[in-house]
Design brief:
Layout lengths: L4 H9 L2 E6 L25 H4 L2 H6 L1 H16 L5 H12 L2 E6 L5 H5 L5 E2 L2 E8 L5 E3 L17 E5 L8 H13 L2 E5 L11 H7 L3 E6 L11 E4 L2 H12 L6
Parallel strand pairs: 1-2, 1-7, 2-3, 7-8, 8-9
Antiparallel strand pairs: 4-5, 4-6
This protein binds 2'-O-acetyl adenosine-5-diphosphoribose.
Amino acid sequence: MIIPTELINHLRQAGRVAVLTGAGISAESGVPTFRDAQTGLWARYDPQELATPQAFYRNPQLVWDWYRWRRELTSQAAPNAGHLALVEMARRVPHFTLITQNVDGLHQRAGSQEVIELHGSLARSRCAVEDVLIEGWPAGPGLPTCPRCGSLLRPDVVWFGEALPAGALKAANNAARAADVFFTIGTSALVYPASELPLEALEHGATVVEINPERTPLTRYVNFPLTGPAGEILPLLLHETWPDAQP
Ligand code: OAD
């Protein structure tokens, strides 16, 4: 893979860089992507039927068991070279915003700060009735309840059909509009409204870069489609742009 010189120049001169990541950035950490996640015990379930409020009200134990399994997978994983390259990029750019659809916490574990989490996080749960946030994850296999009101707790993630956290979405929209360079990395660009962010950046004049081994619905619109795994392309891009960069 050769990184285009024009992109390197844009990046060196950029005042504002925004990055949107999806499950693909964690693939090289061994975390299966959302659409490939169903293995073993869970192979017969469609994730779109587990990650919904309806599924939770129908069978909260099943949904908790599934999230506990996903959390176990992610807690065994470590950040990869792609996550680490973004930490270093943030140090090089005057204004850097990292927006993720992932709930795995790997950006934060790599050292990224102020990550905008569009789809929530497996680091927290919340009251299913009052929306009170509970830091940490309930222990044990049973159904956890809210310490305040006794209602069921749920993972603090966004399910299909639910609104994204308004503050996070607004911050992401603002970063997309203001960006000089916008990256869309490891996302199938299918799930609205995150999938609109690269288009919003394009409309506002950003140079848009996609990093993905596969084509997506966005590929033909972006300025620089870089075809390959994020864990290889991001470190290369970092070193080509800032030769003294760590790691
Ligand atoms: P997907 O599982 O839909 O897509 C993962 C993308 O990563 C695909 O386009 C892959 O080609 C790409 N990919 C795989 N390996 C990669 C690698 N090593 N480097 C770079 N890219 C790679 O995941 P998302 O786009 O994140 O939402 O899915 C978006 C949302 O869909 C999820 O957050 C989830 C789901 O609905 C909710 O749960 C609300």
